[in-house]
Amino acid sequence: MTEMLATDPLAAIDACTARAAEALAAAQQPDGHWVFELEADATIPAEYVLLRHYLGEPRDAALEAKIGHYLRRIQASAHHGWPLFHGGAFDISASVKAYFALKMIGDDVDAPHMARARAAIHAAGGAAAVNVFTRIQLALFGAGSWQVVPTMPVELILLPRWFPVHLSKMSYWARTVIVPLLVLAAKQPLAKNPSGVLVDELYTARSAPLKSQAAGARRTWQIFFAALDVVLKRADPLWPRRLRQRAVDACTAFVVERLNGEDGLGAIYPAMANSVMMFDCLGYAPDHPDRAIARQSVEKLLVVADDEAYCQPCVSPVWDTALAAHAMLEAGGEENEARAAAALDWLRPLQVLDVKGDWADEKPNVRPGGWAFQYNNAHYPDLDDTAVVVMAMDRARGRLGLAGGYDEAIARGTEWTAGLQSRNGGFGAFDADNTYHYLNNIPFADHGALLDPPTSDVTARCVSMLAQLGETDSARMKAALKFLADEQMPDGSWFGRWGVNYIYGTWSVMCALNAAGLAADHPSMARAAGWLATIQNPDGGWGEDCDSYALDYAGYTPAASTASQTAWALLGLMAAGMVDHPAVARGVAWLVAHQETDGLWGQEKYTGGGFPRVFYLRYHGYPKYFPLWAVARYRNLKRSNARDVAFGM
Q1: Which of 451, 456, 450 minimizes the C-alpha distance to 425?
Q2: What span, in angstroms and rounded, lies between the C-alpha atoms of 459 and 428?
Q3: Residue 5: its pLDDT value, please?
Q4: Rounded mean pLDDT, 249-271
């Protein structure tokens, strides 16, 4: 293939594109959608094992053996613990949970891998040094004290919205995770744990201070909230019983309203698992409809192979389907475009038109119209997915003569997305104006992911959508472009909240600026393109590590090339009119050379962002559709017949 590229570049690209499109088509589900595995770190599969033992469910030895194999495989050989992403540094909380799960499964604590993990945990401060959510997990098993868990009174659910600490001021994911936790913290139940397994051997100290992972955390605020925590702990026994029961009932009602069928509370594992434990501690029988469906939602996240298994944090069918549809439209041809049309037909009925979710607390006069990330999550659609779906539908109606079929969906999706613009001009993922940054200083928020403020990447996607639909000079567009201009880093890049990291953010914004009509020589575009060209690896690809989210980040650090990040960089450079630049040719050559025998690309590196510094994602679909998209766009631009040159994706 490399020799072919040197002698006949476009023929090589044609062959690469055709093979990739054929392979991606083969992965499409019979009903038209795509869904690929979504992998996090060791914590979710470990928590799944612990959940079953918490509930005292019959043991599934075969499944536990497969999860044990998975956990042992991803244990790091360098530091003997478990990282937050492939090749990452030791993480104390992930390591304690993985060790606990393996011991629960039956691994001998004196086995070499367990002894090495235990030594690494001791060296990092032991089980007392874990984060808030791990402290709760340990406390639920009686393996740790509730006294080291920051207090969040269940009565929080009853506070008026104007109160400084209120659930509506937190992100959707924090909200759905915390509400059932409020009940658990109030009741402080003890796991059934029929095996009686604990991890006393992991403790080396009684307690350790919590360290916030939030950018901009303030010590004065932290001191204030730490003192408040002491007061709340002392006052906890004094809450009137009737008020406490009223609060528990309110939490239960909140969860039941948002149970979301077999897709679960918030459609994310931590909230789903917490809801099951909440129902259990409230005395709901296993066959109670609410508890049973909540429990079933967890099972649907399992990925079980012949020799190993793990639990996903959630599923990504809408995101995968919309992005794969874009890639197939880019690849072009009757068969590929028919595949894209089938995908869009699958997406159309998933638009949320009849539920005003939590986002309406801030924007009550906006009509519903968004898409969620998962199969179903009606209370929590997101702007990123909605913008990408709308753009795909708009591309299809322009190229496939499908205008009538998508017009209403596009209009409602655009109305909802634009309606959730924040006051600073930017767009968050799920809510508008979720910018109560002082909340990141409360002890419970040590993960630094309590909020959903506007970000460059989501704002870029919304700008791309509006511009693609012909809106380039409105007041809201000007406000969004100003937000993006203000967010540009001194080196020309943009921070990527939901993808790793500056490559992802920069690609997203460059496509948006191109769609909005900014010329390639505009200072923002030129600086961004210069940054991307500068950080290209000698092998022609691009790569960036999850460590780029570090609070002490001082500039780009070279990392091994990956297929998805190379594709993002190429799409960004081509949006800046640099299709003929040598950097683009080298990047395309890297993708062609690294295409695997199945027609797609492999990638173990994590290039998805869950929560910076806390939680990362390996989207198994990213190295499948993004490289196809990039090589097909390169071919189209080189042949000067691209119909989507100014599109924002």
Answers
A1: 456
A2: 7
A3: 47
A4: 96
Token look-up 């499908």 returns: 402
DSSP β-bridge partners for residue 452: 434
Q: What is the pLDDT of residues 134-151, one digit of tens each?
A: 999 999 999 999 988 888
Look up tokens 């367990």; give the residue: 114
DSSP E strands in 270-369: the ranges are 302-304, 309-311
Decide if 626 contacts 94 (C-beta within 8 A).
no
Contacts of residue 472, Cβ cutoff 8 Å, sequence gap at least 6 = 466, 516, 517
Reading the block at residue 334, the tokens are 């009757």
What are the φ and ψ backbone dihedral angles of 475, each rounded to 5 degrees?
Answer: -65, -40
- Phi, psi (5° rounding) for residue 39? -110, 135
Flag whether the pTM goes above 0.90.
Answer: yes
d(CA 308, CA 80): 20
Asked if 30 and 310 count as a contact pair (C-beta separation under 8 A), the reply is no
Q: With CA atoms as reference, report the closest residue to 446 among 148, 118, 186, 42.
A: 148
pLDDT tens per residue, range 282-323:
999 999 999 999 999 999 999 999 999 999 999 999 999 999
Cβ 546 vs Cβ 85: under 8 Å? yes
Tokens encoding 29: 């589900």
CA atoms in the 13 A half-sphere facing the CB of 589 = 19
Predicted confidence (pLDDT) per residue in 323-344, tens digit = 999 999 999 999 999 999 999 9
CB 561 within 8 A of CB 540: yes
| Cβ atoms 56, 192 nearer than 8 A | yes
Q: Say if residues 433 and 464 touch (Cβ distance below 8 Å).
A: no
627, 601 contact by CB (below 8 A):
yes
Q: Which residue has the tokens 């099951």?
A: 276
Return the active site residues. 384
Neighbours of 388 (CB within 10 A): 25
Torsion sign over Cα 476, 478, 480, 486: negative
Could you tell me how far CA 66 lies from the centroid of its own chain?
25
The Cα-based distances of 52 to 55, 135, 303, 409 in angstroms read 5, 18, 16, 41
Q: Which residues contact 77 (CB under 8 A, 6 or more apart)?
A: none
Is there a contact between 462 and 474 (Cβ–Cβ < 8 Å)? no
